[in-house]
Design brief:
By secondary structure, the protein is α/β, with parallel strands linked by helices. The chain has helices at about 15-30, 50-60, 65-70, 80-85, 95-105, 130-135, 150-160, 180-195, 220-230, and strands at about 5-10, 35-40, 40, 70-75, 110-115, 120-125, 125, 140-145, 165-175, 200. The strands form three sheets. The protein has a six-stranded parallel sheet with strand order 2-5-1-8-9-10, with helices on both faces. The chain has a two-stranded parallel ribbon with strand order 3-4. It has one domain (about 5-230): Rossmann fold (3-Layer(aba) Sandwich), CATH 3.40.50.
């Protein structure tokens, strides 16, 4: 399956994937793109519904049915396979593929946000990396701005390369707040290592809509998506 779009993943849980994904959706829309969204699996879902999926749909301004945007909404805040097993369910990749194909037919591109990190199991014998490859999407990696980020980020990029996944870019997220001097020095080293792969840096935010101008290079990401689809 090949479609224009991007798969947003992270180097850690709680790193700010949804915030970055929503910002990306809004940025691509400002560039004139018709953007569909997807959260194939969301865990930790309460009575209010899948909050990440709903935030993505609001950012895109679309009315696609929630069962397409989020085919699997699970209550337990755990890895997808674990959360599904707790409900006596199995996550079926065919269901996700069909939902994605429908969204891709309705929109010029699709921003899909994974659950957890790249190698978290999403179905029997399949990880989020496998799902991204199945959907034919390059990755946008959200990296946490904290001590340990060099290792986490480079391991994620290496895992992507070994699985034949293209990386459209890396966005650093200051989701943990103020940095120590050691963490700041580490982060500068990561910036230098990433070079052109670094396409944004998001400061500590309280709400998705607060993203300052220039925090993410939407033009560069859009061009890289064009190159992928061409």
């Amino acid at each position: 399956m090949t479609a224009r779009g991007v798969f947003v993943t992270g180097t850690d849980t709680g790193v700010g994937k949804t915030l970055v994904a929503c910002a990306l959706v809004r940025g691509l829309r400002r560039l004139g793109l018709d953007v569909g969204v997807m959260k194939p699996v969301e865990t930790g879902v309460g009575a209010a519904g899948p909050r990440d999926a709903l935030a993505l749909r609001e950012a895109a301004g679309v009315d696609d049915p929630l069962e397409l945007v989020c085919p699997f909404a699970l209550a337990l805040p755990a890895a997808p396979t674990v959360a599904a097993a707790a409900e006596g369910r199995r996550i079926e990749l065919d269901v996700i593929r069909r939902a994605f194909a429908t969204l891709a037919s309705r929109h010029g591109c699709v921003v899909a946000e994974g659950a957890g990190v790249l190698l978290v199991p999403v179905a029997d014998g399949a990880s989020m990396a496998d799902l991204a490859r199945e959907l034919g999407l390059p990755l946008l990696v959200v990296a946490r701005a904290s001590l340990g980020t060099i290792n986490h980020t480079l391991l994620t990029l290496e895992a992507a390369r070994t699985r034949g996944l293209r990386v459209a870019g890396v966005v650093i997220s200051h989701s943990s707040g103020a940095l120590t001097s050691a963490a700041a020095a580490n982060l500068q080293a990561l910036r230098e290592t990433l070079g052109a792969a670094l396409v944004g840096e998001v400061p500590p935010l309280r709400a998705v809509g607060e993203l300052p101008d220039g925090a993410i290079d939407f033009d560069t990401i859009s061009r890289r998506l064009e190159a992928r689809s061409g």
